[in-house]
Amino acid sequence: MHCPTTFREERLEALHGLMRAYPLATLITAGSDGLVANLVPFSLHDGGERGILRAHLGRGNRQLDALREGAETLVVFQGPESYVSPSWYPSKAEHGKVVPTWNFTVVQVRGEPRVIDDPDWIRAQVRQMTDNHESGREHPWQVADAPDDFITALIAGIAGIEIPVLSIEGKWKASQNRAPADRQGVIDGLKADGRCPGMVDWMERG
């Protein structure tokens, strides 16, 4: 990933924070059938130096073949993003030397995948992911709320994935290369537009 030093994010806790906040990632494999990409919700777990990713795929998904081959695997987590209008920069009135750009946050993870066919492992992964996303709801849904034979049949149709994180890169492009007044202008412009509160939150964190 092209990443100028100004935008590089290396704090593991910050990278993990984005991955947990935006768990629907693009799973990309380069196997014998070429490049394949799918959107997959992941959960992040402790383990190793950089963490472990877990997920599941339907058994009809041909990407499983590449994963079973141990194909080169890239997982891309996309955080807040937004168009940035040059009209938001106070410096526009000073010299006019401004152009549109895009602010965004992204984490790229690489690792060696393992496909898991153990139904108990898959059930536990589904249960944990569900509990993560249902927590905080007034009436959280649980896997146990559905008939067991129904869940058992569904689990038979999916395979688990585990990817220990071998490398991780983060890019936070949030107007760090602009003067403080221009950066504040972007924050004010995004607030006025109301289009991307997530990017506003990210920029205000500093």
How is this structure best described in words?
- This protein has 206 residues and is an alpha+beta fold.
- It has a single domain (5-86, 101-178), classed as Roll (Pnp Oxidase, Chain A).
- 33% of the residues lie in helices and 34% in strands.
- It is built from seven helices and nine strands, in the order βαββββαβαββααβαα.
- Strands 1, 2, 3, 4, 5, 6, 7, 8 and 9 form a nine-stranded antiparallel sheet that branches.
- Helix 6 (180-193) runs antiparallel to helix 7.
- The longest helix has 16 residues, at 119-134.
- The radius of gyration is 20 Å and the shape is elongated.
- The mean pLDDT is 93.
Describe the SSE topology.
Elements: E1 8-9, H1 12-21, E2 24-31, E3 34-41, E4 43-45, E5 52-58, H2 63-68, E6 72-84, H3 91-95, E7 101-111, E8 114-116, H4 119-134, H5 148-156, E9 158-173, H6 180-193, H7 197-204
Antiparallel strand pairs: 1-9, 2-3, 2-6, 4-5, 5-9, 6-7, 7-9, 8-9
Radius of gyration: 20 Å
N-to-C series of helices and strands: EHEEEEHEHEEHHEHH
Helical amount among residues, as a percent range?
A: 25-40%
- The CATH C-level class name: Mainly Beta
Poorly predicted segments: none
Summed over residues and divided by their number, the pLDDT gives a mean of: 93
Helix count equals: 7
- How many separate domains? 1
Kindly identify the CATH topology: Pnp Oxidase, Chain A
Structural class based on helices, strands and sheet pairing: alpha+beta
**C-alpha geometry:** elongated
The count of strands amounts to 9
Main sheet properties? 9 strands, antiparallel
Looking at CATH, the homologous superfamily is Electron Transport, Fmn-binding Protein, Chain A
Give the name of the CATH architecture: Roll
Distance between the termini: 23 Å
